[in-house]
Each structure stands twice: as structure tokens, then as C-alpha cells.
Amino acid sequence: MSKVLSFSYGHRLINYDGKCKNLHGHNAKVEIVLASQALDVKGMVFDFGDVQKKLKGWIDQNWDHRMILSESDPLLAVLRKTDPTVTTITTNPTAENLAKILFEKAKELDLPIVEISFWETENSKATYSASST
User: CA 15 to CA 30: how far, in whole Å?
Assistant: First the structure.
């Protein structure tokens, strides 16, 4: 089964020679794929509403309408002075890294995750799965 979640965020890539080195935003779409050897007593792999509550709840609280930057971004200190909600990750905030972080978060939230696809734009996505580890 899969569930699609959407949110908005901003970022920029450091050590990158292209347009994405500038601060900019995206309307992201995330597809989470879950699987199980057997269905539960309700006949489900996992309740869609529970996926929404758990993973979308985490996204809404931590990433939605936030600037996501590398903790080594030189703009971080300046931006935090005007917006304390700026969020950091240890790596460059690429679609690939954000997909991996969401995959690991889904595991922490006890979702039977198989794969996450992270659409940065309508035409560009990164996918992370258990076989990627």
C-alpha cells in the first residue's frame, strides 16, 4: 500500500554550482510505500489515517513551511536571527537526502516501510528504499 503526502519547504544547496545554490522553495510530494507479510485484523497493511497522523504529523511539525538547510550552511546564523524555525540536517538538503531522512523517520515511527519517493518538483524525484542501505 502507499500513501502520498504533500508539504511546502525551502532550501538551498551548498557546494553546488547552479540555481539551487540560492534560497528557494518547493511544493514537495512524498509517496511512502508500506508492506507486510500479512494483513492486520482489519484487513490492512497499515491504516492510511495512521500514516497521515504519524509521518505527515512529523513533517508538519518539523519541515512544512520551513527552510531546511545543512548545519554547515554559512547563511544559517543570519537566517536564524530572523526566523528561529529554520531547520537543519547534517547533510546537504537534496531530494535524495530528504528521502533518506523520511525513510529513517518512518522506521522510527514503526511504519512497515519499504520505500519512499520524494518529488522535489513535478518532474524530479528521488527514491530511497530498504535496499538502498
Answer: 25
Contact (Cβ atoms closer than 8 angstroms) between residue 14 and residue 21: yes
Strands 87-89 and 66-70: parallel
pLDDT digits (tens, 9 = 90+) for 103-132: 999 999 999 999 999 999 999 999 999 887
User: Would you say residue 133 has pLDDT above 80?
Assistant: no
The phi-psi region of residue 48 (left if phi > 0; otherwise alpha if psi is between -120 and 50; otherwise beta) is: alpha
Residues 63-86 have pLDDT tens digits of 999 999 999 999 999 999 999 999
Q: Which residues are identified as catalytic?
A: 20, 65, 120
Homologous superfamily (CATH) of 2-65+95-132 is: 6-pyruvoyl tetrahydropterin synthase/QueD (3.30.479.10)
What are the residue boundaries of the structural domains of the chain, listed by start? 2-65+95-132
| Nearby residues of 131 by Cβ (< 8 Å), 6 or more positions away | none
